[in-house]
């Protein structure tokens, strides 16, 4: 358990309607259950509160956005500055016949006019969005039931699974710019690619508008059940893990390799450093067997990368984010 010494919230931070907490332990908020403290933890009341904070904070205050901690290692030294977590003010979900509220002159809004759309907050869990859609006979979002994390995180990395990515269903996204402006962006402006969003560093997603075509509920439920069964049988869903650790690499000739196959071929399945281990069930997952440190998890990942490179000549790229001080 991380020990965070009590501290005081600086009076220089902007007045907000949300809440500040100094020296906040982050280890309990990450799926790995590791990590140090946030110097300041800020939970904005809503998107406008977040925009106000960004617009009025001092430029020398570093900001880190943290979702539900599903795809991240918070290092043991903690995170300086302000860590932002989006709470209840970012979990609304609405199904409507028009993209509302959206600027009416934007290309995406015009193309979606007359269709139903699903507007969701960036703090919504991907699985909750999939279930909300299924209950309303909306198809095409079943893949979200297989992705740990939030919609904000999915937008930030173009998350995908089971043959679909967030870019395939996104119409528009709302975000706060580094200057503190709350704006809507068409999907094409985000320049999505494999596990990547082209928006510059410093933007914070607050909401998304998703396509919501009608479908047969039985078919939707069958698809979600298939995804759930596949996850349960092939992934360590009951362990302390952070999801897929490395991206599937694309070679110069355009072919894509599966990261887990490269890791397995390099003899890394089950490998351990301290209490951190490469999963025996799916070797593109690292797990905390209990008592692992963030440093052990990160060192294990780097050791896997070195062994894969030595065996195949392919350098794996981290999919899990590593943030904070060592």
Low-pLDDT parts are 108-114
Q: Count helical runs.
A: 7
What about the largest sheet?
Answer: 5 strands, antiparallel
Q: What fraction, in percent, of the residue positions are helical?
A: 10-25%
Q: What series of H and E elements makes up the topology?
A: EEHEEEEHEHHEEEEEHEHEEEHE
* Order of strands across the main sheet: 6-7-12-10-11
DSSP summary, beta strand count? 17
Residues in β-strands, percent: 15-25%
Give me a quick take on this structure.
The chain has helices at residues 47-56, 107-112, 126-135, 151-157, 217-234, 259-265, 294-312; strands spanning 19-25, 37-43, 63-65, 72-74, 79-84, 93-96, 117-121, 160-161, 164-165, 170-176, 182-186, 204-211, 240-241, 272-273, 276-278, 286-288, 321-323. The protein has 326 residues and is α+β, with helices and mostly antiparallel strands.
Q: How would you characterize the overall build of this protein?
A:
The chain has 326 residues and is an alpha+beta fold. 24% of the residues lie in helices and 22% in strands. It has seven helices and 17 strands. The protein has helices at 47-56, 107-112, 126-135, 151-157, 217-234, 259-265, 294-312; strands spanning 19-25, 37-43, 63-65, 72-74, 79-84, 93-96, 117-121, 160-161, 164-165, 170-176, 182-186, 204-211, 240-241, 272-273, 276-278, 286-288, 321-323. The strands form five sheets. Strands 6-7-12-10-11 form a five-stranded antiparallel β-sheet. A four-stranded mixed β-sheet has the order 1-2-5-3, with no helix packed on it. A four-stranded antiparallel β-sheet has the order 13-16-15-14. A hairpin with a 5-residue loop joins strand 10 (170-176) and strand 11 (182-186). The longest helix has 19 residues, at 294-312. The chain is globular and about 55 Å long. The two termini are 16 Å apart. The model is unreliable at 108-114 (pLDDT under 50).
């Amino acid at each position: 358990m991380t020990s965070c010494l009590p501290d005081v919230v600086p009076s220089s931070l902007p007045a907000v309607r949300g809440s500040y907490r100094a020296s906040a332990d982050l280890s309990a908020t990450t799926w790995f259950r590791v990590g140090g403290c946030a110097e300041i933890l800020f939970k904005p009341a809503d998107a406008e509160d977040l925009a106000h904070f960004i617009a009025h904070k001092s430029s020398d205050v570093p900001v880190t956005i943290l979702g539900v901690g599903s795809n991240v290692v918070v290092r043991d030294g903690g995170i300086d500055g302000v860590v932002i977590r989006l709470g209840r003010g970012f979990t609304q979900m609405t199904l409507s016949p028009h993209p509302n509220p959206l600027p009416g002159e934007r290309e995406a809004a015009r193309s979606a006019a007359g269709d139903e759309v699903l507007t969701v907050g960036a703090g919504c869990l991907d699985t909750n969005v999939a279930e909300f859609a299924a209950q309303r006979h909306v198809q095409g979002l079943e893949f979200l039931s297989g992705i740990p994390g939030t919609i904000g995180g999915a937008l930030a990395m173009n998350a995908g699974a089971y043959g679909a990515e967030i870019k395939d269903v996104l119409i528009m996204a709302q975000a706060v710019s580094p200057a503190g402006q709350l704006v809507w962006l068409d999907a094409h402006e985000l320049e999505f690619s494999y596990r990547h969003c082209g928006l510059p560093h410093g933007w914070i997603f607050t909401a998304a508008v998703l396509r919501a075509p009608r479908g047969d509920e039985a078919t939707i439920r069958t698809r979600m059940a298939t995804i759930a069964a596949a996850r349960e049988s092939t992934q360590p869903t009951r362990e302390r893990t952070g999801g897929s650790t490395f991206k599937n690499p694309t070679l110069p000739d355009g072919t894509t390799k599966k990261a887990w196959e490269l890791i397995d071929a390099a003899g890394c399945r089950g490998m351990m450093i301290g209490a951190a281990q490469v999963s025996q069930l799916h070797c593109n997952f690292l797990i905390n067997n209990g008592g692992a440190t963030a440093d052990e998890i990160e060192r294990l990942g780097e050791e896997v990368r070195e062994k894969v490179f030595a065996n195949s000549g392919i350098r794996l790229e981290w999919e899990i984010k590593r943030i904070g001080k060592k």
